[in-house]
Amino acid sequence: MEFDMNQIPQTSNSNGKIEASESQNSEVHSENSAVQSVEPENVDSNTLAAVLQFLQKHNLKGTAEILKKEARLKEDQLRDAQALQVDSEATNLLSSYKSEGDPNAYEKAYLSYRRFVESSLDVYKHELSLVLYPLFVHMYLEMIYNQHESEAAKFMERFSTDQEDYYQEDLKKVSFITKKEHMKGSDLMENFKSSQFTVRMSRDTYSVLKRFLQDKNQSIVMNVIQEHLYVDMYEGVPRNKAQVESTAGAMEGEANRQVNKTKIYYGLLKEPDIQLPVVEEEEDGEPGEGGEKPKKKKPKKDPLLNKKAKSDPNAPPASRLPLPDLRDIDKVEKVRALREASKRVALGPDNLPSICFYTMLNCAETVTCVEFCEDSSLLAVGFSDSILKVWSLVPQKLRAMKPAEQLADIDKEAEDVLVRMMDDKTGETMKVLYGHCGPVYAASFSHDRTLLLSSSEDATIRLWSLQTWTCLVVYKGHIYPVWDVRFSPHGYYFSSVGHDRTARLWATDHHQPLRIFAGHYSDVDVVQFHPNSNYVATGSSDRSVRLWDCVNGNCVRLMTGHKGTVSALCFSTDGRFLASGGADQKVLLWDLAHGHLLADLPGHTMTISSLAFSRDGTVFATSSLDGSIQLWDFFRMTDESSLEDVNISGHNPDLLKRSNAIESLRLARYPTKATPVMSLHFTRRNLLLAAGMFEG
């Protein structure tokens, strides 16, 4: 099955915007066009090197040779000039740090601004303090660029401890830049050059800041703010300390509100009408009884299929993203899922879910990932020795397909042809898949359980058949380890993320990615598909969460608030909410309609490993490497009336009220003895499955 995705460009730039990936076929009417005589004393060698570089880039060899002859440049002069030219781009980008000022003036300027923040009114103090960290970093880099190394080292040593705890890891990397030469080619410098640090403040706070800069003639502070900061100003009351801290912490500062104003379709797609052969049953009365003719049979209607699917006003148009057509086997599976859902247990504060825990023994140091399939019948586990194991969690064993010679004898028109294809002699409770040459970091089942994806340190993604138990495709696109991979809920598409700071959208029948989502400033560690398959959420080591549009490749939501690497993501069953967990032991809940933070759920003492919503959307489960599972009342957390109160101006006024009553939202906490919980999954009947490796 192949969909035409060519109408959408293939790559994106660092701001998440898509650029057309068409090759530039520049027409050159006359390569040997007349070149005016160039006097070497009138034109410097750097300019000539730049022109020659341009000509060589566009394969204009003849013109380049003519220019060399006319310029009468020697080879060694040209080589030196081209080497300088290569460095010029980085130099131009760093030139904003150039200053002739006294190195001791930086310390005075920083102390002056810090005293100003401390002496400001409490109502402005918290927003003004957001400038301290970027001001400190850029002052340090400016001193390094202007070769005041010893003063910069003292400046770093004296004031680095003043910064927030969550910035200390970044500051450690900054402190390694001790010479001007270190600034070129540094990953950290690439981040500072490609973006401005975003600081959100009210108009009143900004007026106070502006008055200070003008009255005190703070030229150093003013230059840093103008060159390296983006002030996202809003109308309204300045935020208090809790509100400021709730969204601070990301590498790029706070989320720019303009990014979160894009309309998104967070609703679910309308379920297709499923038409299956009906089961017939006879009416009362025996055939031929009393000399009468037997009565006609009437079709037995399935009440589950008669329910008309409601259309969600927030759902994307059905034609927005090409999705595969439902096969007969998919329709049968949907009916099976509906029947199981009809037996679902209704959960709530008075009816908590049962938990079934799968413990792996003798593998505490080697298990790298755990994944349940959608219908809870299969479990995949990745290991650090590059193997992948799949277990059956139901009585049916895992069977392989018969050889081709035996398949030729099977009646293809038979109703149970899929059963006949499988070889009972090969049945096992566990299968092992070999192929990767590095630790397996993630696994994901397709919705029909016939395919399995895995990603590894070897920078590849493998697609495995769960019918032949062999590798079908090796996808090569990432150039560094691939941390996570996830199948779309509708199949066909999948997404991957890795150490190269990108997320990629793939289709199973394309060996190259359809989209490259670029915008994060560090490793992208986790990815999750939206239930309607139109969006992909990513969590990164830059401590931010982003939502990407699969159709146009744009970043449509940027959410900041984590103080550590984002390690887990999960969408609510209705598609409106996104939960994220991180190495900062926090679980944050976001409203995708506006990109606002709704709740901060504390309680875990180690990295959050997995998140799961119950099938009816009433209970929310979180797990951590601390070996505990917590259950939360999600229905109360997202009460309709409170969502209407959310202020779109610039902050989250409702978050504080929730934090005061957070304990009442926690329904239960279940600790294990010595088993970090690695994965959570609700079955179709709302039984909670969990898995982890015993470390005793």
TrEMBL record:
Disordered, as annotated region: 1-40, 276-326
Biased composition (Basic and acidic residues): 301-311
UniProt feature, compositional bias: Polar residues: 7-36
InterPro entries listed in its UniProt record: LisH, TFIID_NTD2, TFIID_NTD2_sf, WD40/YVTN_repeat-like_dom_sf, WD40_PAC1, WD40_repeat_CS, WD40_repeat_dom_sf, WD40_rpt
GO molecular function: RNA polymerase II general transcription initiation factor activity
Superkingdom, natural source: Eukaryota
PROSITE patterns per UniProt: LISH, WD_REPEATS_1, WD_REPEATS_2, WD_REPEATS_REGION
A Pfam family the protein falls into: TFIID_NTD2
One record GO biological process: transcription initiation at RNA polymerase II promoter
Comp. bias intervals (Acidic residues): 279-289
Domain TFIID subunit TAF5 NTD2, first and last residues per copy: 100-229
Location within or outside the cell: Nucleus
GO cellular component assignments: transcription factor TFIID complex
Main location: nucleus
Ranges: WD repeats: 360-393, 433-474, 475-516, 517-558, 559-600, 601-633
Keyword terms of this UniProt record: Nucleus, Repeat, Transcription, Transcription regulation, WD repeat
UniProt similarity note: Belongs to the WD repeat TAF5 family.
Protein name: Transcription initiation factor TFIID subunit 5
UniProt source species: Daphnia galeata
